[in-house]
Amino acid sequence: MAVLLQYNHKTSFTIQQLQENTQISRADLEQVLMTLLKIRLLFCDYSAATTADEDGDGGTLPPDAVCHLYQDYNNKKTHVNINVPLRSTERRELEATQKNIDEERRYLTEAAVIRVMKTKKELGHHELVGAVMGQLAARFRPDRRAVKKCIDDLIDRDYLKRCQHSASIYQYVA
């Protein structure tokens, strides 16, 4: 929106001018400009640009390329969506959020394993996994492989140990 507001005063700006006026990061500005160029609300003059990276179709925009407002813009739709989300920013946020969720779930799973083993002291693998999944069902549906991985991590950190008689029975180490 800030980019379009610049065109209230003039009909053409270089990319460098738009970046200085709007204080938007270069990557975000390029994504916004690519969206506006795609719907042909703006058109870019690469002939003034001295360091054009490509032919003008996709890629990065040179800082001295001039973007003009298309005065005769016409669209048959009554609403044109120009608020396309910034994909790279959205993707980074989604990955970071998913990583935080996975880490939090791992901690919750480990805590549930410890709680069950503190009360039972010795338990078989299937019973332990069932009890942990029962405790965590109210918060999220854990994956059996994730529960097994947490059990193995707790064995490595000496919170649990395998029984000497059977490898499928775990003992809590106080």
What is the element layout, followed by pairings?
Elements lengths: L1 H5 L5 E3 H8 L3 H13 L3 E4 L20 E4 L17 H34 L1 E3 H12 L7 H13 L3 E3 L6 E4 L2
Antiparallel strand pairs: 1-3, 2-3, 4-6, 5-6
Characterization of the model:
By secondary structure, the protein is an alpha+beta fold. It has 2 domains: 68 residues, Arc Repressor Mutant, subunit A, CATH 1.10.10; 86 residues, Arc Repressor Mutant, subunit A. It contains 6 helices and 6 strands, in the order H-E-H-H-E-E-H-E-H-H-E-E. Strands 1-3-2 form a 3-stranded antiparallel sheet. The chain has a 3-stranded antiparallel sheet with strand order 4-6-5. Strand 5 and strand 6 form a beta hairpin. Helix 4 crosses helix 6. The longest helix has 34 residues. The relative contact order is 0.10.
Offer a concise description of the structure.
The protein has 174 residues and is an alpha+beta fold.
> What is the C-alpha radius of gyration, as a whole number of Å?
29 Å
The arrangement of helices and strands along the chain is HEHHEEHEHHEE
- Helix content range of the residues, please? 40-55%
The helix/strand class is alpha+beta
As for the CATH topology of the largest domain, it is: Arc Repressor Mutant, subunit A
What is the correct CATH architecture of the largest domain?
Orthogonal Bundle
The top-level CATH class of the largest domain is Mainly Alpha
Domain module count? 2
Number of strands: 6
Give the terminus-to-terminus CA distance.
60 Å
Q: Output mean pLDDT.
A: 82
The backbone outline, from C-alpha atoms, is rod-shaped
Total helical segments: 6
- At the fourth CATH level, what is the homologous superfamily of the largest domain? Winged helix-like DNA-binding domain superfamily/Winged helix DNA-binding domain
Low-confidence stretches: 51-57
Going across the major beta sheet, what is the strand order? 1-3-2
Q: Into which percentage range does the β-strand content fall? A: 5-15%
Main sheet? 3 strands, antiparallel
